[in-house]
Amino acid sequence: MKWQRGSGVRRKGLWFRLRKILLCVLGFYIAIPFLVKLCPGIQAKLIFLNFVRVPYFIDLKKPQDQGLNHTCNYYLQPEEDVTIGVWHTIPAVWWKNAQGKDQMWFEDALASSHPIILYLHGNAGTRGGDHRVELYKVLSSLGYHVVTFDYRGWGDSVGTPSERGMTYDALHVFDWIKARSGDNPVYIWGHSLGTGVATNLVRRLCERETPPDALILESPFTNIREEAKSHPFSVIYRYFPGFDWFFLDPITSSGIKFANDENVKHISCPLLILHAEDDPVVPFQLGRKLYNIAAPSRSFRDFKVQFIPFHSDLGYRHKYIYKSPELPRILREFLGKSEPERQH
Ligand SMILES: *[C@@H]1O[C@H](CO)[C@@H](O)[C@H](O)[C@H]1NC(C)=O
User: Fold this and answer.
1) Closest Cα to atom 1, ligand 1: which residue?
2) CB under 6 Å to ligand 1: residues?
3) Which of 105, 193, 212, 321 has the fewest CB atoms found within 10 Å of its own CB?
4) Cα torsion for 327, 331, 333, 338, to the nearest 10°?
5) Which of 264, 324, 326 is nearest to 298 (CA)?
6) CA–CA gap between residue 262 and residue 283 (Å, rounded)
7) For the chain, what are the domain ranges?
């Protein structure tokens, strides 16, 4: 009898605790949308994720620690109070010549006849992120210079993150490259959130009539609202009443658009889109939708627009397209052919 009563009390206690936890979770679930609506800055932080520094213990001043023995780290100043950290990797064939050389040598190397890729990374992490470093290695082994940087507020770059600021930093680095690169082709490569920066930049360059030689978008979305809606983070709120008002309007009211779908209509240069079918972060359909908007656009009338899907069996997901053994051929065919089609 005693034992039975004890167990009943325990069971009751457990049920009580469980109910408390459930109520708590429900409370948070309902409170979070209101919190986000009241502090739109939260959404901006979640989009930029610049405070997430992974891997944490890397010294961005020492790219050689990441196996980049032909990369120079330097700093540029796009605006007063803004400093950005840059990595410049030269084509791998010169790795021996690069040993012990300083920034001036690397800058001069931009003028020697090799094409240059300006790489615009996505949110979270730094220019030293693993999958980014692996891509620099692939591109450099194919004979490209790779110039990449951390936007203001990322890595060791100083400033406050914003879409305008990111785009401005990219424009500054582009102009800096152009001032040193002579007649060498300059390509813009954006990944994930970096595709938003890339199309902002290239739209601006086209409006200014200094387009790049090609634009490559890896795992792009159509615009930040559609991306935020399909991001795994929002899955648990997808059917929450007023989802758009709670979660998407604060993004728009913070001035964040990353409107790839709008920008491509104002871009005139060869465009290559790469997307893995099993991308869990930026759904494959968004990349395909962007292609379907760009391809018939009048702005691309004289230029090639190509979409390359990667089958889900390959497992490239959101950031492993660099592993594709097909990538060198894809780039050679696309960039090789992009030259004669250019208008002069
Ligand atoms: C330096 O980097 C190049 C290009 O990635 C590589 O081929 C070479 O083996 C590296 N050398 C050393 C000593 O690590």
Assistant:
1) 69
2) 69-70, 92, 95, 137
3) 105
4) 160
5) 264
6) 19
7) 2-38, 42-335
Cα–Cα distance for residue pair 89/109, rounded to 1 Å: 10
* Mutate-to-test residue for ligand 1 from 69, 70, 141, 145, highest number of ligand atoms within 8 A of CB: 69
The verdict on whether 318 is a catalytic residue reads yes
pLDDT surpassing 50 at residue 94: yes
Evaluate if residue 268 carries a pLDDT over 60. Answer: yes
Contact (Cβ atoms closer than 8 angstroms) between residue 135 and residue 323: no
Mean pLDDT, rounded, for 12-24: 89
Task: Give domain 42-335's CATH superfamily.
Answer: Alpha/Beta hydrolase fold, catalytic domain (3.40.50.1820)
Strand 271-276: give its sheet, edge to edge: 71-79, 82-89, 145-149, 116-120, 186-191, 214-218, 271-276, 305-310
> What pTM did the predictor assign?
0.90
The answer to whether 144 and 112 have CB atoms below 8 angstroms apart is no
pLDDT confidence band for 344 (50 / 70 / 90): very low
For the chain, the distance separating the N- and C-terminal CA atoms, rounded to the nearest angstrom, is: 96
> Residue 80: how many CB atoms within 10 A of its CB?
6
